[in-house]
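haha ok so turns out i had the wrong file open the whole time. this is the CORRECT one, sorry everyone. sequence first:
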Amino acid sequence: MKRINKSGSPKFFRDFIRRNNPVNWNGIHEIKHDLREHILKKEQGFQCAYCESAITSDNTKSHIDHYKRKHFFSELTFDYNNLLVSCNNHNHCASAKDPKVKSRDFYKSLIDPVNEEPSDYFDYQISGKLISLNKKAKFTEKTFNLNHSGLKQRRNNISWAVQSYKSSLGLEEVIEQVGEFESFIREIW
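then structure:
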């Protein structure tokens, strides 16, 4: 999980909300793709906000996730700071989080990647395993299933690539070259 620095809602989103005054999330259907593309490009580096897998704005690969679910926080439905892009993997990330949310209080125990620095809560092993440093981190890891076997294996595979790049590229170049798992790369660098 990486820190997401929200850059302020884009003008096209604000204008659309002001002009159309949608009553629910389906009311922004015509700009969802542009909004997803904006968030991925400007804030998330085309990585899932939770697992940091490389994703595109294609709706078969990613979706806009309401970090705080609309069901419990209807007042945040169009709050730009509550909108993150998640991969569509059914074993982890938003798909794993959403069924577990049973109340508004759920979020008190969860790391918020917009308002907190996830790297303060997690370390990584070279094997790709995410290490939770406290109770809140452990709860977040379990909620999003961030140690799913597929994620650990992919991070482990990348660790070998990172080691081979070290002699010829700098850290930022490696992050750009690999294109995913930025926090893991920074940790093992």
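The chain has one domain: 11-188.
again sry for the mixup
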